[in-house]
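Ticket #317: bound-state structure for NAP.
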Amino acid sequence: MRLLVTGGTGFVGSNIVKVAIERHQASVVTTSHSWRGDGSEPFSVVPVDMTNPVALRAAVIDSRPDAIVHSAILNDFVRMYADRSLAWQSYVESTETLVAAANEVGAKMVLISTDWVFDGAQPAATEKTPPNPINLYGVLKVVGETIVTSTANDGAVARVAGVNGTHWLRDDYVAAQNPGLGHFIGAVVNGLRTGQPFAVWEGPLNMVGTPALASESAEMVMRIIEKDRRGIFHCTSGATVDRMGLALATAAAFDLDAELLTVGPGDFSGTGPAPIPVDTSLDATYTSDALDYELPDLDRLLATFRHEVDHAELLPV
Ligand SMILES: NC(=O)c1ccc[n+]([C@@H]2O[C@H](COP(=O)([O-])OP(=O)(O)OC[C@H]3O[C@@H](n4cnc5c(N)ncnc54)[C@H](OP(=O)(O)O)[C@@H]3O)[C@@H](O)[C@H]2O)c1
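RESOLUTION: The complex was predicted; output attached.
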């Protein structure tokens, strides 16, 4: 299978690329924006700015993929609010361009989306629960989702949520706590390993969710493609947990001192003016059945992540 991944150089995208190559023997082309490799990578790289529709379409036409996974984002909330045209181009118009190009070459189109399409008061939202975003990021994602589900000849939306795990392409990646539940497990591990207290944030931020491990979400995305599924999917775990519960489970799974966990105020400096959804827990039962995939519980998610941290490899299947 020939796969084009936009944002394959990012955190989630690097997992899609790695899982596609190592577990699914895919031939992968990824777009890059700031990332530069050394040419030894087991995939092809096309420098593309996704806000340039001509270059983005050309990447599709030139690579003739069987499937496109659109994972690239403008991951800067403050900039999104400061430059809403750029935000629209990055999220909405890039998706329009990719869907049109996918239709042109007969490729499947998968958009990576988010649990933040929900308002934070829709616990255990299913794939069929109507979204109700409360910030610009969520709005832009819902618009992208709608473009895919209504205009792609063969389209799917893969919502990921509170993504944790390994960035396989950036040695300088450091997981840091943020208003979402993504990167949180790594932040707790990094914090507790210093032997210093680690303050788990509280406040009107994403306090409850159904976190994912990026490599597991990547496996689910590959199954969407290989099983030729269409529609909306929740590519996350089967475990709903609150922020402190996730911190405690992380300490146990990584043999770290849970006594060092404290509670402290959240840092909202990077989120822009709009609110953060508080409970973005997801139900992924439909997805699990559709993909014939057993959702990881928290123990399995943490054990798999620990294997990645300890061995710098995907958990052998
Ligand atoms: N992380 C989470 O917890 C989480 C939760 C829910 C949903 N998601 C979704 O997962 C997807 C990936 O997020 P992530 O966490 O992996 O983000 P990330 O690590 O910040 O990666 C962003 C990617 O987008 C690329 N990119 C940025 N600006 C670009 C541009 N103008 N043109 C082309 N490419 C550009 C970057 O390329 P370079 O590296 O080459 O600069 C990078 O590959 C997004 O759709 C996001 O909404 C993530």
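RESOLUTION NOTES: Residues 7, 9-13, 31-35, 48-51, 71-75, 90, 112, 114, 160-163, 180, 182 surround NAP (CB under 6 Å).
TICKET STATUS: resolved
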